[in-house]
Design goal:
The chain is α/β, with parallel strands linked by helices. About 20% of the residues lie in helices and about 25% in strands. It contains six helices and 15 strands. The protein has a three-stranded mixed beta sheet, sandwiched between helices. It is globular. Bound molecules: citrulline (CIR).
């Protein structure tokens, strides 16, 4: 039975100051964000995930997007070096959490930058988005860290969205799903299924064909239900205003044993 452990990080008091990529600053309701986050965490728990809360990083408004601070392959946790300077203070708490769970820890070093949201694992293939947050040196360091562990690291240009996983994620059968207008090169993925909504491109695999998805993607959920999956929808509207998605609110650790 594979272990189902997930890191999460509670929204901090400065959540409303989180980075936004475009448009006017949205109004964020911190209390609503916290309620949405609690419902997200309860959904993970209801599907057998043991959740571990990373210590707060209250000076970092975007700390709730915990997936960006680390990427894990087998037993190795590569601590990110976030492309946005305001997010660099997020990593020490995440490092402590993964080490406590038994990971071997490695780091991305300057001049490399890498955000966990740019890393999509499909079996032993590790796609890494080279875009606004992850630079070429970060890609090289990811290759050097995970290649020797058996990963096949595939670099993917990302020019139309914040992170690779803002544009694509993968179904349990390995099919990559994405909202085509935001995907630079769909042909890089051996099996690619377009979905009709931007947030429909984001799925968290809960296990047993269940897919955690945003409530803002009902048509994509219908499409995936129609091919035999079981979407479980959660409202993460306050996080979507900050360019967040279901994937970046947790780090799923399938290969670590405490
Ligand atoms: C940021 O711009 O860094 C945050 N406001 C959103 C991060 C979302 N993370 C992700 O898509 N992996």
């Amino acid at each position: 039975m594979p272990s189902k452990k997930a890191l999460i990080r509670r929204p901090g008091p400065r959540i409303a100051e989180g980075l936004v990529s475009a448009g006017p600053r949205p109004h964020i309701d911190p209390a609503l964000a916290t309620r949405q986050w609690e419902a997200y965490v309860e959904t993970l728990a209801a599907h057998g995930w043991q959740t571990f809360e990373v210590e707060p990083a209250d000076d970092c408004p975007d700390a709730v997007f915990v997936e960006d601070a680390v990427t894990v392959f087998r037993n190795v946790a590569l601590i990110a070096r976030p492309g946005a300077a305001s997010r660099r203070g997020e990593t020490p708490g995440v490092e402590e959490a993964v080490a406590r769970l038994g990971a071997s820890v490695n780091w991305v070093w300057e001049p490399g930058t890498l955000d966990g949201g740019d890393v999509l694992k499909v079996g032993r293939t590790v796609y890494v988005g080279r875009g606004g947050r992850t630079n070429a040196d970060g890609v090289r360091q990811l290759r050097a860290a995970f290649g020797p562990l058996g990963a096949r690291v595939v670099a993917v240009p990302v020019t139309k969205a914040l992170h690779l996983k803002s544009t694509v994620t993968a179904l349990p059968d390995g099919t990559v799903i994405g909202y085509e207008p935001l995907v630079d090169h769909p042909s890089l993925f051996p099996r690619f299924l377009p979905v009709p909504e931007e947030s429909g491109a984001h799925v968290v695999l809960l296990g047993g064909g269940k897919l955690l998805m945003a409530a803002s993607a009902p048509k994509s959920a219908d499409l995936l239900a129609d091919v035999g999956f079981d979407p479980v929808l959660v409202d993460i509207g306050e996080f979507e205003k900050l360019d967040g998605c279901v994937t970046c609110l947790s780090v799923r650790l399938r290969d670590l044993y405490a």
